[in-house]
Request: fold
Amino acid sequence: MPIANHHSSVPVIVDEDKCIADKGCTVCIDVCPLDVLWINEDTGKAHMKYDECWYCMPCEADCPTDAVTVNIPYLLR
Amino acid sequence: MKTYDDPELQAIATKLSSDDPGIRRVAVLELVDTGDPDAVELVIHALQDPDTHVRQEAAKVVDEFEAEDMADALIAALSDSDETVRNAAAHALADLKDPAAAEPLLQALETSTDSFVVSGILRALKPLRTQDAQRPALKRLADADAQVRREAVGVIGWLKQPENLPALVETAQHDADPEVRRAATGALVYANPSQVGQALIGLLADEHWQVRCEAANSIAKLEYQAAVSALITATSDDLWQVREKAVDALGKLGSVESIPVLGECAADAMSNLRKAAIGALGTIAHSDGRPYVVTALDDPDPDVRKLARWAISKLDAAA
Reply:
């Protein structure tokens, strides 16, 4: 039986064009209470490494460039 | 660029002289956490950065520092090409509340022509309550820009000088912009009721509802008893918002003769108005109002019922 291509998505999406983590910004990483945001070694941009999100939103609110979007699941809205 | 003893600050200073605006921007973000008074120079430097984002970021952090050290830079930032920077500078200036900032602000006011800058300076001058601001503020009451006139009214209102009352009354009655008229109407409350009472009664009939609301508020604050009949007329205004304020004012004035009108309002379809009417009847606490309050105990709106119970206790206490 063929295996389906594994598709996964995380609730915190970082717009890499806007993110300035490669310039030394760590605002979202610092505010995250669960420490689930990390710098992607390849791009130098922030990304969600572990999907343990509480949807608490400071990463989105504090991002200086509005690069972070938190997609709150429909049932939690 | 200057060197700093503090290695942390030096690191930020180095980043701030980077060619990459992104790195300069992040350096500004880090400035906030230094807590070093020397960092002010770097903020001023960043406020003059060629990159808009860096200036915006700097404008956001200015209130973390001693503003008097950068009053000049903030005033310069009021003429920034970017609106976010201008806004942040105006807000930071308004937060100064430092008498030392009055002098540079007044100088900048003298020479500024841009409306946005002028209103920012006036807003910053307002809480300083310096007498020297009176003359320029009075002059700006005739400015072509409504926002400038609005801020000028604020400055004059905070100065609370009786000699400015005629100018404020004139503005409240005849300014073309409703928000300016509203602000001036609200500013009249420092007067002696006899000086502005008649004007306030006239303003109860202003064409703009917010001015009418403000007039009722001001009458209540001044406790101008001669306005009772005008307020009673205002309780049949077209807009419930105005009626609500008029009813509030009648309550504050303790007007017994208005009780039948308040009773009508207590049966209005708009629950906010019923609430205000019951509140007023409770404040007046006259037995004539009791039947209306008793009826309101069964009001469909829980807020009205709650207030009715309070009003009953006031009536019982007064009996």
Summary: Chain B touches chain A at residues 15, 20, 22-23, 25-27, 29-30, 53, 57 (CB under 8 Å).
